[in-house]
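Cross-check.
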Amino acid sequence: MKYRGTLLTLAGVLAGGTIGWVIFPFMLYSSSPQPFKFSHKVHATEQGMACEQCHVFNSDGRFLGIPASAACAECHFTTIGSTKDEATLVEEYIGKGREIPWHVYSRLPDNAYFSHAAHVKEAGLACEECHGPHASCDSLRAFEANRITGESRDVWGKNISGIPSQTWETMKMDRCVRCHADHNHAGGCVECHK
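Predicted model, tokenized:
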């Protein structure tokens, strides 16, 4: 009886922590698979392709991001190999002239502006510094969207606390501010926010 209040408090803290740190994230995010399996490892590591071969800049310096199906068709005009995913790419998208409806992990909120040209072409940052080791990934993970905001979970990061274990695991503003400070770039708020 003497420790009943302490035990109830501990049980409450444990239950609250479990709900807040384990159950809530599963309820907060919806998960959608990518249209088919894609291997950055096969393209970048095994074939030696650079990120810029598929993820290109426009003539005005804007980043186009996800490659168009026409870019894939340069190599995949016919089926290479015998996987179901290769057949899907060629038959459903390239053969029919359709764009692949990829889910974009790195889409920022509408009030934020990010220039890849300024960071890659002018500042000389490597893609891996912000996007992590995609070149070694053999498949694309499911896209997770916040059910309330619609934003990618990658904006906040995998950890519900928002504290990443790797610098590339989040796209929060404090990460940008730290990087700008590290590179002695003193821009104002309106440089990135509309």
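The longest helix spans residues 4-28. The beta strands are 29-32, 143-146. Passed to J.P. for a second look.
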